[in-house]
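Request: Mind sharing a record?
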Amino acid sequence: MAQRSFDTKRKPSKPKPYLMPIEWGGSTVFSKIAGGSKIEKVNCEGLKSPFLILCNHGSFIDFPLVVKAIFPLRTSWVISIEEFIGREWLMRGVGGIYKRKFTADMTVVRHILNALTRQKVCCTIYPEARFSLAGINEQIDGALGKLAKKAKVPVCVFIAKGNFIRSPQWNKRPYRQVPIEGRFEQIVTREEVMTLSAEEIQRRIEEKFVYDDYAYIRDRHIPMKCKQRAQNIHKILYQCPVCGKEFATDSKESSIWCSECGAIWEMDDYGVLHRKNGPDVFTHVPDWYRWERENVRKEVEEGRYRFEDTARLERIVNGKIGFETLGNVELIHDENGFTMSGEILDGRFSFNRSVASMRSVHIEYDFKGRGDAIDLATLDDTYFVFPLTARNVLTKLHFATEELHKLEEKKRRELLGAEK
C-alpha cells in the first residue's frame, strides 16, 4: 500500500499562542549561546502586523533572531519540507508552510497570502531558499515584489551578520563564538505598497539584500575563536586558483591546499587567506568563490559543461516515515537540466527537471552523515540524490544550475525581442 505523503494542500495553522512562550524563551537562550546578538531596527515606527519579513539564511540561529526582532508579534514561516520530518506537529504549530525547494508552487503563494491577509500574522520567508555557502548573499526569488503587491502589506528585510561565520554549512561544529548583529528594516510601508510598482519593490528588496560575513569580521577585527576555522572550506573552494585544477583542494583546521600543485593557504583569525608558498591570489573567501562561478559561467556559455555520475536516490515519504532509499540511478546534469534514470524499487524510474524550471538547486554537504546530497523536487515529490563516485561536486552543480538558467532566460528574452 502506498504511504500517504505530505498534505501540502492543507491550510497552515495560525501560530499557536501556547507555543509563543517557547519561541520567545528559545530565542533568548539561543542568542546567549551564540554569544549574544544586537538587533538594530530601522524605519519601524508605527509598524504593525501583518507584514512580510525577508531574511538572509546563514545558520539555524536565523530563526530565533527573527523571533527576537519582532517580539511580541507572531509570524508564520515558509519552511523546507524535510524540516517537518519527525516534528510535523511542531512545524504546523508555529505556522509552518510547506515548501519543496525551487518549485513554482502556487499553493505556497496562497498559503502565504492566507497568513498575511486572513490570519493577520506576519510571514517570514528566506528568499535565497537555501543557506548561504560563502557568507554572502545568494540569488533570490524575482517575484517578491509581486507577492508584496498582492498581499498589500509592508515589507521588512532582516539581514544578520556573523550567523554564517558561527556555523557554516560545510563545517557546522564546533561553533565559532562571534557576535551577531542584525538589521531589521521596513523598506516598503503600508502606504507605499499600494502606490509603488512590483518592479520598484523588487528593486528595493534586492538593493537591501546584500551582505558579506567575511568582510564583517575582517573589517570589525572580530576574531574567530576556533582552531578549525577553515575545516572543510574546500567544499566551496574546490578549484585551485594557482593551477586551475578542479576538485584537487583539501583542508584541515586553518589550512587549505591543492594536492595537484602544492599551493597552501592559511586562514587567520579574521577569515583572511594568506598564501604560504607563493604570492597571494585570493585573500577574501567570497572572491575565490565568485571566481569559480565565473569559470562555470564560461563553461556553460561555451557549451562545455556536463556532469554525470551514478547516484543513490532517496525520497521523502512523509513527516512520520521520513526518507526511503529507492536504489541507484544514473544522474546527468547538462543543458537539458537534471535527468535521472534507472531501475529502482518500484520499477523503471525516469526524472527530468528542465533548465528553465530551476533557477537554482538546494545542496547539502554530508546530509545527516549520509553523504553530499542534491535536493531535486517536483510539486509532488522531494528526492535527495547522493553522487557515489564524483568528489566534492556540489558547489559546482549549484553554480551550473544557476548559470544554465540565466543563459536560458537570456535566450528566451532575445527570442521574444526578435519576435517583436
Remarks:
- The chain has three domains: 17-219, 233-301, 307-419.
- The first strand starts at residue 37 and ends at 42.
- The chain has a mean pLDDT of 92.
